[in-house]
Amino acid sequence: MSDFPWEIALAALGVLVPIGLALYEFAVVGRKRLGYRVQMDTTATDAVHSMYETTGALQQLRRDGDGEPLVAPSFVLLRIENDGATNIVPEDYSVLDDDKVGIRVHFPGRHVAGMVVTELSSDFLRPSFGPNSGLHVHDDVIELPKVPLNRGAHYKVLAALDHAPDAEAEAEPKVVGGIRGGVDTGAIRETSNHGRAPRRILALVFFLVLIVLGQLAVAQLTPRGSLECAQGELTLTGSSAFKAVGEAAAKSYVDSCPQAKIKSSFSDSGGGLTTLTAAGDAAQDGHPEMISFSDGKKPDDMPMLIPRPIALSLFSLVINEEAEVQDLTADQIRDLYAGRIDNWEQVGGADLPVRLVTRDLDSGTRTALTERVLDGA
């Protein structure tokens, strides 16, 4: 593939697109929005003409005023809600200031026989429907007052209707109203039932799935080891204490980055530092392709070398079990190396002579022991 960082680009899209959609949803779409839902619109006529007396009071519905029975009664349950992200106050309704009506609901082809407010999301909405609030019914219209609605607040209206005598056909309710500063024109709009995820959420999930699949495809099509891999040759030298871990790390790196070639030549700390110094002198830029591992500090006569701590080493003194010595103090260790103790019996062990086995003079381990335990002796 090309050098274009597809994985970074896909990851950036996976982050920026959800952020953009969230900002659009809450800062633009959900800024201020008045919505409604027609939760029920059904007739109250007996479609099966049952021989049993099951209709009861539904057959006794009458008009208010003349007392005539309803010819083709129907019921509509309407939910008015704040579907936005900010509160709605009476001054937000797009009507004249002296108009108490905020929303008008028309029922084409039907006559309003009666209505009630059946549900309030909060009790503090109750005073909004008091006398002179703007709540009114006439002919085919229900007028609703300018109700303040906090975010997520709602109320429901149940209307009993009858077929208008001079109407040819009935139509769905028409809700008219709006708010200032609302989404688009600010007009009230029908909202969907929240029983399933909105289309924007489904689209976002689908987009994120595509991003994940794209990243997997890029990972599969990218040659192994082509990302963040160094090329060329490198030589590892220095203390043999690092031989096992150094060669294991080199093998792991080469397995991931086949373009790299790593050689190892471990001996001792002093020899490794000397080799590195000579390689630096021979290199044109003074930076040879070499790393030397040492378990001692850098000598003062090698100013061009730059030390970098990479690990913490633990040193132990090992005593033959036949000596029968379990523990030694720091002073006893110094006396052993100074020759003042030449028999293990002198430190509570067996009657056996002391024989010291140590590293050569160039060993970093020996240097560390000499400086840190033997006080440089």
From TrEMBL:
InterPro entries: PBP_domain (IPR024370), Phosphate_ABC_transporter (IPR050811)
Pfam families: PBP_like_2 (PF12849)
Keyword Lipid metabolism: no
Record keywords: Membrane, Signal, Transmembrane, Transmembrane helix
Span of domain PBP: 229-375
Transmembrane segments: 6-27, 201-221
This protein's name: PBP domain-containing protein
Species lineage: Bacteria, Bacillati, Actinomycetota, Actinomycetes, Pseudonocardiales
